[in-house]
Amino acid sequence: MKKMNSALFHILGFCLLFNACDNPGVDGIIPPDTGTPVLSLLDDASSPAISAWNWMEGLDGAITLSEISIPGTHDSGARYEPIAGTAKCQNLTIAEQLNIGIRFLDIRCRHIDNAFAIHHGSIYQHLNFDDVLNVCFNFLDSHPAETIIMNVKEEYNSSNITRSFEETFLAYYQKNPGGWYLGSSIPILGDARGKIVLLRRFGANALPMGIPASSWADNSTFGSGDLRVQDCYKVTDNNSKWNSLTALFNEALSGPAGRLYLNFSSGYKPGIFGIPSITTVSNAINPKIVDYFRAGTDGRYGIAVMDFADTYKCGLIIKTNGIVGGGVVFFQDINYGGSSGLALTKGRYTLSQLQSAGVPNDWASSCKIPIGWKVTVYQHDNFGGTAWALYADPAGGQSNFPGYSGLNDSMSSCVIE
């Protein structure tokens, strides 16, 4: 009995430490393959390819960031945990997140030794703020038409400090002041290109210092200045959480253009002894996000802040900005009918890579191919079995796979060139 009580004591102690953090992360429904060729986002079949790493290039620089549907990550640096399901929120590194289209990062900083260490609650994530900034600035140097909205929040207890959180942030800012947008209003994309836009969830005396978000209501849907936020992270009922998500998505579709909508899909169900039951929420919410955006129309949905972001969910959100229309697209039914996967750029796609782009095994019955492109479809994974060559011209038979003996519902890998 003494051993059991001791074990329970340590579990409860861990939970008390963990409660310092807002909401723990959950696994996604399709583990992304970071080697997947990036989905293409084309304005039309003859336009230059816009990939997930430069998708904002296709947007008008005169629109405000609040008028764009943006995929984001919750607790973006949280990839480590001492107990499964209690702290990890992402599979992908910050660099990998940016490369699949993420443009909102949620960075939680513990103030220690007058520097910022990335934490999720009490758990150090083997990452420091300089690491995050170096990745972001390198990405923006390579893709100057993009911007990154960064939510910076103080996390857990400070330790061994001689200055304020604001002063330490300013020390980081001074290393590259030209790389930041610190205006208090929501900028137009043209003014934000090539920069990190600060969303400030900490107090500040030297104003302006980013879009103010320090008045953050706990576990609720609320408005604050130009922000409208849904962050209901303590989830006792999955249907209620989903209703909160869709309510803000719908509100964003018709809300004022100057209002920035932040919609968090993350959450956990409190379990026995306060231990969070994370997968109870994720297994219900993540598939609903996919279904919602697959069935949705173009429009402004705000920032969708996700745990365990992957290529597919990001692509579906990016598509709602109306910049997707070309590339190779596979359809479930003949004559381009039924559900479709993401538009794919040139590359080699194994089964797992197709699945991450929304194309299940032995599923496709037709496809659209840009002029001048060729698609070789393979019967088995890893480019094995019978192969069929498809082209953009009508003679290639691209519209209906049943036109090729054995091809319908038989694709497990492909090469696009």
| Basic shape | globular
Alpha-beta classification: alpha/beta
**Counting H and I runs of at least 4 residues, what is the number of helices?**
9
Binned, the helix content reads: 10-25%
Mean pLDDT: 85
Assess the beta-strand content as a share of residues.
Answer: 15-25%
> What does the radius of gyration come to?
22 Å
| Amino- and carboxy-terminal Cα gap | 66 Å
Biggest sheet features: 12 strands, mixed
Low-confidence stretches: 1-38, 41-49
Q: What's the total count of β strands?
A: 23
Brief synopsis:
By secondary structure, the chain is an alpha/beta fold. Helices cover 24% and strands 24% of the residues.
List strands and helices in order, with pairings.
Blueprint: H1 2-18, E1 40-41, E2 50-51, E3 70-73, H2 94-99, E4 104-112, E5 115-120, E6 123-128, H3 129-142, E7 148-154, H4 165-173, E8 180-181, H5 189-192, E9 196-201, E10 211-212, E11 221-224, E12 227-230, H6 238-254, E13 260-264, E14 269-270, E15 276-277, H7 279-295, E16 303-306, H8 311-319, E17 329-333, E18 337-340, E19 347-349, H9 351-356, E20 366-368, E21 374-380, E22 384-391, E23 413-416
Overview of this protein structure:
- This protein is an alpha/beta fold and about 425 residues long.
- The protein has 9 helices and 23 strands.
- The chain has helices at about 1-20, 95-100, 130-140, 165-175, 190, 240-255, 280-295, 310-320, 350-355, and strands spanning about 40, 50, 70-75, 105-110, 115-120, 125-130, 150-155, 180, 195-200, 210, 220-225, 225-230, 260-265, 270, 275, 305, 330-335, 335-340, 345-350, 365-370, 375-380, 385-390, 415.
- Strand 8 (about 180), helix 5 (about 190) and strand 9 form a beta-alpha-beta unit.
- Helix 7 runs parallel beside helix 8 (about 310-320).
- The longest helix is centred in the first third of the chain and has 17 residues, at about 1-20.
- The chain is globular and about 75 Å long.
- The protein starts with a helix and ends with a strand.
